[in-house]
Amino acid sequence: ITDITPTNISFEDVTSKVSSATVRSRAQSSSITSVQGTDDIVAMTFEIEAGEASYLDIDNITIQGFFDAAGGAVDDADEGANSYLSSDHIDALHLYHTSIDEANLLKSQGGGELATGLVELDLNDYRIDASEIKTFFVVVDLADNDDVNNDSIRISVAKATIRDMENDTVTLKDADGNEMTGVDFDSLTDE
Q1: Torsions phi, psi of 45, nearest 5?
Q2: pTM score, whole prediction
Q3: Residue 81 has what pLDDT?
């Protein structure tokens, strides 16, 4: 028996891809003016897209909120300790997926849970399949509080903990491919 050494070996092309998560804010058609004490106000809509390399499991999403007591647009100057949303503004915050329907409610938190304007919503490994886009809705119940009359509020995604099929952490990026750090997109609601 002699060794047979092939002179040519060919393989199919192998492409390596990195797991990814892209988040996009879906703009509302206009600012919203609502009566204090009104429930079920859509404060923000956003999408998370899984790249084609892996499904994503979302452990948690942190929502952040600020207000402007002057009733104008909430801007960078309003993003500080004196302007964090609290139970003075919001009685409850709800996160839905796909559509605003009780069957699609992922998590709710009372306004008293807003610590430094942040609410961390535990999603228990909510899965987004590879190459899939999921839409999320942040819905708020406004507090009935005369002290915050004419305040504008801004809700945004501050951060998320996401893992891929290898249980590695996936960095949340915006639609331009930039790593999200803090409040990168938002929506405006007037109370």
Answers
A1: -130, 135
A2: 0.81
A3: 57
